[in-house]
Amino acid sequence: MRHTLLLSLALALALPATAGANFGRYQRGNAVYKEKLAECAMWWYRLGDITQSTGKRVNSGDLALELGRLDERQIRQWLADPLSVGPKVNCRPGTFTTERQVQDLIHYLQRRATNPVVIPVITHEPMKRTSIRLLRTQSVLRERLKVREEIRLMNKGAAPITQPAPAPLSRPVAPTLDTRGPAEGTR
Questions:
Q1: Is 90 exceeded by the pLDDT of residue 51?
Q2: What's the rounded Cα separation, in Å, for the pair 61 and 87?
Q3: Residue-range domain boundaries for the chain
Q4: Which helix (H) or strand (E) holds 26?
């Protein structure tokens, strides 16, 4: 039992280190892909496979997914000559300085093809009116109408104001002007 416990503890400690090493390898492969294959990826995104171009875009838009479907030997052949193996792209990948860069790139491409990155899509949809929401809205409206009716009844049944009403404004009578001409016979 003691040995089983020590063995399980050793495995538990070793597994995260392996996963971390793979994650680091994936990140290094991603950096190599961005550095060495950026131009080819851009070419592939714009034009697609030159053997299949019929005026319509027939590729997935991501060169890493296309290359990840190949095995290691085909990926190495593609890196040497991109026109020899599909996906055929008319560009030159950057020069690799170490074998580790190639291995990290192959690791990245194969992991990316099996687990493609999913970009979340945010959509703005109008809220659907549920029956619960409608009932709540109707109850609020009923309550407001009830309060409005209570206010109207209070205003209608209120006692008149005891102050005397102001007298209507009377206009002073202006003298009428005689618009007839001068009296006859006077001068």
A1: no
A2: 12
A3: 19-114
A4: helix 2-36
